[in-house]
Amino acid sequence: MSRALVRWPSVEPARPNFQLAGAGGTLIGFTAACAVVGLLVGWAAGSLGIGLLIGLVIGIPVGIVAVYRRYRDAF
User: Would you place residue 6 in the very low, low, confident or very high pLDDT band (cuts 50, 70, 90)?
Assistant: First the structure.
């Protein structure tokens, strides 16, 4: 048997892929979820617009942190 036919396993560990669509979906999903929660809190408090705005302001950093935590091993 020839050594050329033997395939040795890779020594390097496999790195997870960074998927741009997945990162965008995660960012939009978490931001939208915070916006909906803010909207519901604003509705309960009597001001839909302010609740939505506060939810969006909180949701953007939450989305960024979620993307970072999900894909931190990809870099």
Answer: low
CA distances from 67 to 3, 18, 30, 45, 49 (A): 44, 10, 9, 31, 27
Note whether residue 49 is domain-resident.
yes
8 Å CB contact between 60 and 32: no
Token pair for residue 4?
A: 């050329």
Confirm if 32 and 45 have CB atoms less than 8 A apart.
no
Q: Please tell me whether the overall predicted TM-score, pTM, comes out greater than 0.90 for this model.
A: no
Length of the chain: 75
Q: Which residue has the tokens 């942190």?
A: 65
Where in the sequence is the domain holding 48, given as residue range(s)?
36-70
Asked if residue 42 is part of any domain, the answer here is yes
Instruction: Report the domain count for the chain.
Output: 1
**40 occurs within a structural domain:** yes
